[in-house]
Structure formats: structure tokens, C-alpha cells
Amino acid sequence: MRNFFSKKNADMKMEGSETPVASGDYFSGDASGEHTTTAHVDTELSIHPDWKLPQEDVYSFRFLNIECDSLLPNQLSIAGIKLDEKDSEEWGLDATVFFRHSMNKTIELGETTLALLDQNDQVLGRKTMSLKEVGKLPPKSSRPWVISFTKDELNIEEKPEDGWKVVFQLKPSARKHSLDLDEKWQKTLPSKDIQDLESLVERLDKPKTTEVNLLGLKAAKRDNGDIQLIILIRNGSEKTVNLEKVPLVLEDAAGDELAKAVFSPKDLKVKANTSKPWVFIFPEKMIKKEDYSIDQWKVYMPKSS
């Protein structure tokens, strides 16, 4: 068994990132993929029984596992540890990762398509392989493993920058459209509100794979005259959408254009096949009418955008 970490590397960190998926999306029809609580789950390190590692590597894996983000119940994830260029005649990349899950039972993975993505979610490589050799993963565990990408499985010729990740590439038909909450919302929203949002996203028709659309959730006039909107941004595509500019038109109950603006939200990214709620505020000076009703209202992106 190889030595995974150099003794000279004192600044140990996770080079890659991760994107969890619902276990029910991987194990088709498995009801345990549904979660009714937002309690976070920390995964416990599990070394494959056939791996004979020096104690230094075990300590390193244990430290890096602690550095991983907590999971929600019934999730699967691949956390990127490090990426090495192969020491062989034919170039390739070895991705050392943690296979993590937060289910309350032992699981075993099967034949799976994995994709290597860069920090902007662009596909760098792809391979289909059997993950049975990863072994049986104990409940709520995190197992280190190496995924080898050959030159033919990659569309790059050099190692990418930190922030890469390996993800489960699930068939679109097998994936549910799910809620993507900003970290601040996750920490501040009551569990009941999060569950209501999840239920709403599940009830709505899934957006087309080519579209990003909006659903207005709530409109309110603030004491200072501003109008605050909570909008659900629905991304039906298989790529993360980065919204640097969001042009919006607001219509009141009479169908009149009440306000129009182009917003520049900070770090508004909507993950593939998810819906994310976001707050937009029209300042009072942009409101075109003095007397209006927003008991009924409509918001949309103008076609010219």
C-alpha cells in the first residue's frame, strides 16, 4: 500500500470540494433518501479492511475527515482530498477522495459514472466503474479511496487548480429536483420553514432541462417604502448557474409595471437541477406608482435580457 501523504507536507488541507446528493437519487426507489430533519450528520472515518496504512496516514485521513462539512441525513458525497499525476509512462490523474454517506445503515455502491469537474463545474473527465471494491460502508461513514482517470478518460492535459471535485453523474430522469439553500438560510431558517420549502419544490413540476425560471414566493412593502420579494430561482439544467446580473420586472395587482431593475447579487449560484430562494429589494425610489396593491403580483425577467 502506498504512502498517501508526505511527511514534509505540514500544511494539510482538502484540495478538492464536494457536492452531496440524496441517497434516494443514487439508490433508485430507496425511501430512505427522504429526510424530514435538517440535523447535520458528521461521518466517521472507515479504512478499508484490506488497506494496511502507516499510522501517519491514518492520522492524516482522520484529520481531513474532520475538516469535511457535515451532511444532511440520507446523503451521499465524494469529498476531494488530493489529485496526483500518475507516475507512469501514460499520463493520467489519481484522485484521492472520501466516499461519504449519512445513512443509518451499511451500504454498498455499484456500477457508477463519475465525473471530474473543475472549480467552475466544467467537466474535465468522466469514467464508469464498479464501486463494489470500495467495500461495505458502515452507517454514517467516510472511506478514503483512489479513483484513477486515464488519459483517454480526461479532456485536459494538466492537473487542475484546487477546488476540483468528483461527483456522481446520475441520469437526469433518476434525479429529483431539490432545494438548494444558501448557507445563511440553512443556519437561520426554522426547520419547519425549510421543510415547507422542500415540500413546495417537490410538488412543483420539474423545470425543463434547458431553462431557468422564477417563482414569486412573497412580496411585502417595508416601513421605508421599499418592496421586498422572495423569489424561488429554478434551475432545470445539469450545470450550476452563476447569476451575476438579474434583471427583474415587478407587476402589481392591476397588471401595471410597478418597478424594474437589474440586480447584481453576491455569490448567487444555483446548483444543477435545484431551486434556490433569494431576496430582492426594490428601493422606494424605483417604485413607479404611489397607490398600488401587491396582494397579487408577478415578477419575471424581461425578454430583452
Radius of gyration: 23 Å
**Tally of domains:** 2
State mean pLDDT (0 to 100 scale).
89
Helix and strand element order: EHEHEEEEEEEHHEEEEEEEE
Distance between the termini: 56 Å
Number of strands: 17
Structural class: mainly beta
Poorly predicted segments: none
Let me know the largest β-sheet.
Answer: 5 strands, mixed
Q: How many helices does DSSP assign? A: 4
Outline type = elongated
Overall helicity: 10-25%
Strand adjacency order, main sheet: 1-3-4-7-2
Oligomer status:
single chain
Strand residues, percent: 25-35%
Please provide a brief summary of the model.
The chain folds into two domains: 21-174, no CATH class; 178-300, Immunoglobulin-like, CATH 2.60.40. 12% of the residues lie in helices and 34% in strands. It has helices spanning 23-26, 55-67, 183-188, 191-203, and strands at residues 21-22, 44-45, 75-85, 92-101, 111-117, 123-130, 141-150, 165-168, 178-179, 212-221, 227-235, 241-242, 246-251, 257-263, 269-270, 274-282, 298-300.
Structure description:
- This protein is mainly beta and 305 residues long.
- It has 2 domains: 21-174, no CATH class; 178-300, Immunoglobulin-like (Sandwich).
- Helices cover 12% and strands 34% of the residues.
- It is built from 4 helices and 17 strands.
- It has helices spanning 23-26, 55-67, 183-188, 191-203, and strands at 21-22, 44-45, 75-85, 92-101, 111-117, 123-130, 141-150, 165-168, 178-179, 212-221, 227-235, 241-242, 246-251, 257-263, 269-270, 274-282, 298-300.
- The chain has a 5-stranded mixed beta sheet with strand order 1-3-4-7-2.
- A hairpin with a 5-residue loop joins strand 10 (212-221) and strand 11.
- The longest helix is centred in the first third of the chain and has 13 residues, at 55-67.
- The radius of gyration is 23 Å and the shape is elongated.
